[in-house]
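All the exercises in this workshop are built on plain-text protein records. A record pairs a protein's sequence with a compact description of its fold. Read left to right, the backbone structure tokens trace the chain's path through space. Once this layout is familiar, the rest of the handout is easier to follow. Here is such a record, shown just as it appears in the course material:
>
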Amino acid sequence: MGTLLRALRDLPLVEASSICITLALLLVFIIDISARRLLLCLRRGPFFKHDSVGNSSSGDTRELQVTIGYKFSVLCCFFVLIVHVSVLVLDVVGVAKERNEISVLFSPVTEVVAWLVLCASVVRCNYTSAEKFPLLLRLWWVVGFLICLWALFIDSREILVNGSNHLSSHVVGNFVSAPALAFLCFVALRGVSGLRVITTHSHLLDPMLVEDEAEEEEKAGCLSVTSYSDAGLFSLATLSWLNPLLSLGAKRPLDLKDIPLLAPKDRAKTNYRILNFNWEKLKAENPSKPPSLAWAILKSFWKEAACNAVFAGLNTLVSYVGPYLVNDFVNYLGGKETYPHEGYILAGIFFAAKLAETLTTRQWYLGVDILGMHVRSALTAMVYRKGLKLSSITKQNHTSGEIVNYMAVDVQRVGDYSWYLHDMWMLPLQIVLALGILYRSVGMAAVATLAATVFSIIATIPLAKVQEDYQDKLMSAKDERMRKTSECLRNMRILKLQAWEDRYRVVLEGMRSTEFRWLRKALYSQAFITFIFWSSPIFVAAITFATAIGLGTQLTAGGVLSALATFRILQEPLRNFPDLVSMMAQTKVSLDRISGFLQEEELQEDATIILSQGMTETSVEIKDGCFSWDPSWVRPTLFDIHLNVKRGMRVAVCGVVGSGKSSFLSCILGEIPKISGEVRICGSAAYVSQSAWIQSGNIEENILFGSPMDKAKYKNVIHACSLKRDLELFSHGDQTIIGDRGINLSGGQKQRVQLARALYQDADVYLLDDPFSAVDAHTGSELFKEYILTALADKTVIFVTHQVEFLPTTDLILVLRDGQIIQSGKYEELLQAGTDFLSLVSAHHEAIEAMDIPSHSSEDSDSHHGLDQSLPHNPKSNASSSNIEILAKEVQEGPSGSNQKATKEKKKAKRLRKKQLVQEEERVRGRVSMKVYWSYMAAAYKGLLIPLIIIAQTLFQFLQIASNWWMAWANPQTEGDQAKVSSTVLLLVFIALAFGSSVFIFVRAILVATFGLVAAQKLFLNMLRSVFRAPMSFFDSTPAGRILNRVSIDQSVVDLDIPFRLGGFASTTIQLIGIVGVMTNVTWQVFLLVIPTGIACLWMQKYYMASSRELVRIVSIQKSPIIHLFGESIAGAATIRGFGQEKRFMKRNLYLLDCFARPFFCSIAAIEWLCLRMELLSTFVFAFCMILLVSFPHGTIDPSKFFSSSSLLYRSLESYLSCMAGLAVTYGLNLNARLSRWILSFCKLENKIISIERIYQYSQIPSEAPTFIEDAHPPPSWPENGAIEINNLKVRYGENLPTVLHGVNCVFPGGKKIGIVGRTGSGKSTLIQALFRLIEPYAGQIIIDGIDISSIGLHDLRGRLSIIPQDPTLFEGTIRGNLDPLEEHTDQDVWQALDKSQLGDIVRAKDQKLDTPVLENGDNWSVGQRQLVSLGRALLKQARILVLDEATASVDSATDNLIQKILRTEFGDCTVCTIAHRIPTVIDSDLVLVLSDGLVAEFDTPTRLLEDKSSMFLRLVTEYSSRSSGIPDF
């Protein structure tokens, strides 16, 4: 035993310690197992518990999933075991042959036994389904790795001193097993084994959920998940998992369907759940204190950040290997060899460090990109969810444009901060490492370096505050611009009809000017910061060298160049520090904005109590309800509300304009803040809003609204909503794509699609807000009969209506006035009671009596079937009606219909989609056109700044080379040599050259900022003017989200990113030329390396760009649907909530986020793929040159020549690898690295330039006709008579779309009242659009007072006409601004117009009078009041021709009668064209035009048409009057 201990004492300390610790752990392990076994025996249980993972007594299924992490852990264990067995074999051979001491076997024997136990323990985990490795096993791995590190440190030191003499089997074994032990240590710290037991509870299996997942993947167009999720270690390290996609991209342009799905852990749903959980947890922990969003993000994603920090830290450590060993390598090249094989060992260390740096850099960068993607997805989902839950007050403070900005800009910025996350702790680490190397080179002068570095960093604090302030102002200005842009795009139709688009464009340009002012300050302050930080390393170097000289330290070329190498590496983080400061400022602003938004007030969750269907007979109950849109108002919106509606009742809500009818429905839905009382609903609800909310998509999708297709039910819904005939008129039937906000549907069609959506949901309670106002009398009667009385016969229905004729059939009528129910009861009861209800009914009867309808026999009043037969036949509708026939046939066939047929129908639908109004977003394919580059470069001062930027960069490059060359040349080569100049001259010349170079950097930064500002402003104005001059068809077929994407995200890239990318590319190009120039002067032979390297780089760049370019384009396109869904959902939030569909829309948002993240993920991975290969190429060239150089005889290379050239390469931005590594090595490496950097900067520039390409696309939109034509101005008094002549007018909405007006011929005499009537979809609104030239006819003409309207400017035409449109539109601002945006009238004129339009008293009652605010979309005014504001506009304009397009649809009969009297008085001598479904509105017209299927069916005086028993107009009048006088059919 004593001999054994003595032998152990003779062993090196590391080995002895290792043996002792291993034996101790082995003993603990044996005791642990014995104790467990004894315990199990006492319990009479088996030692190994063989649970069948796949079986469970409860019927649940358990499945063991073995991940790659576990497999790799097992592999590492067995690898280490094999290494130790190999060492043992070698040692045994050594003992046998060379008579070595037996004690050398102690360590390998112990290790082999220990690792046999460890391997068995790891394998056993698979049998026991352990999701975590045992604690003792993990402790053993950690201890083993620490001992390995200790041994590595000692062995490395000994090798450096003694060379290869120290090498032994133990040393080699230690080096070889280190990576495996490092991985096992990492696994031990995590604790997770990589084995997952998945238990599926049989009662929780929901086939619909499984189906949904499959549907989502089918929607994605591809069923494969990215191979990144299960790639091997080699594949992850080399990014070769991306090869199949890049290979496909090289063959043909990529599409979204080619891009694989994300792994589940990378999907938006996963990350949203994690972040939302932590955010809600923080809010709950301390309700009084605002939660920190930054802390919630850190808690959610800290593991990813920590894993990434490992790569960042390793990268930092290996980057300092070069500067540390530069001096030794220089001495070796000069003939001074410290130990045997020093050159080869140094070459190996340099190569290993470079290789490690390359691999860790790529994993680090990819990791931060993925982290940013996760944060962006989660935050976007949270902002979207918040948007769906905002209270009414909060919604007033945050417009849809502002919320889109949170998602488009702020969330993006927070995600981008992941790039700067590690800089905060890496900068101190880099400074400490640099100081250590400097102390070796310049001694105590390193303290001065620290002081100068700290001073440089502290100097940025005031700059950071300035930057934050500028960023805050910039974002606020951007919000305002986006808010107004969004509003203008939504209401472009009214802007063009009123000829106001130029006025609003000027307003937007003014907002952009404000934003531009802050942008200019931000960019110029950034230029100043750039100058400060390019000067910082020079300042630090000057202070260090001056201190060294002052302290009497002997400076040599080797020491100075080693110090300069360190400064160059330190220069990178110092140079990045302004970006860090700026980014921290920007991110803080964005985090505060998002956090503030997420903490805003939400809708009251207890506003409405939802009971399950069948719990009570009462469907809707309100007890003592008091509600107010703004709780701060003195008078609530609704008060003293009591209501009890039994199941199956029909309840009508009536009242004059502004009485609170829509608010009444809102209080039932819980939309309006409840001050007191209680609201209960029993069962599910469906809601139809007054202003139709239609989603982009086809008609079928709008009706189904997320429910599965039931063909029989669907057919019944189409019939009940009178949609069958409309669908026949559409060339694609119910597959017709609806434009933005239902732009290609008439008002009546939109309303009926809404009704169909509600009916298909089969809810228990139906809340309908004035559903019959937008349809004609016949359709209204049909709807009431088929929809309310038949389809909803057993449902509870509460509907707001102005149609008095429907009231007798209701069970209860509520009459509202000033927010209070003043009467309630049945029809007859209320008539007898008199007051408000009687006045409403009387006004209606007055209107009916005014219609002098001639008597005729009842047989003449055929059913509407007979009317349909009498209509002019439209041959073009035959083909289109086939869709409905197919649908009917499929319903008859039932679910057993052929799958093959369904497939054919799908293919046919795809072909038909090409002819739809709304097409998929266009994208350019292939290379970015040089025209795009030239358009950008010529945008600022016709490109004159470009040569100045190049000159400034060239002078900077020259002075940098000169300063480094001076330091290398002027210093003594070795200790004892004579310096060429005095210390003072040395420093002064260095400072002059170095600071001179940073002055030119300042000039370049200012020029780049100026160039970027001017170019960005010009591109923005060109795009804005192009969009505002675009024809209405462009807005009909382009969702607003696409345009908003360009004016927000793409414009931000052009504002802040592209100028610096372009400057960076120019900088890299000049650096490359400088390196090649100096290199050919020194060692022209190394120039031969350029040719193969250049060819390889260019080939890889071409191969990469083929895929990357398309990926970036797809990323840009996939952003638009997210923005569009945001805007659409916020506009229809009340409807979405009314149907309880928040979850489905949230799911849709998550799906779209994943569609965006898929190409984004592949795009960032592709960049890293290219960088990795180029840097590996550099590394292997470097290794080759290194080996070549150290193979030369010592002293072959002239150090002085070497120093002068290599210092050039020091000044490179990223060339620490080349510092003093020899002429050939330096040039071979740096030329190659710079070449790859040059190609990469070009690739990144081209990826970013796609934003310019997309803006350029929208700057080239074909514009509508000129606003003014110089030689064709109509006379100032035109039109004098107002006579309108329409000749053979043919109109369609697009070249691929069917004709809507088929040769209309008629003449409207001047000064007459023309009524235009017809079934819904007959072409009435299209005729009016043609009159205003919103649509240009492809044949025929319209002549007004002898002038063909197509021969004059659009503003000359539209400015002389006036219209009160079907959809009343108010703009955010004031009442005065809405009536007179061009400020052409006095306040007195405005008040007169308000009084005439019955709004004067309402506005006078407001505190701010004419400056009374109007919120976004006019949300604080009722629809009827908005229509009256439109009437006020027309009264102010006083045009000779007035068009009313369903202008009184949203007002009650009394107000309608009043408006008609005002129109007769104020527009007595004007030509008034009235489109109306209310027959009394047009019955007193001078002439009536009846349209049917785009043709003139009848055109005559009302009297003559009513006398003609076969008249279509007579039938319409009869339907209306019969409906209005007792409703016999019902």
Q: What stands out?
A: The chain has 53 helices and 26 strands. The chain has a mean pLDDT of 77.
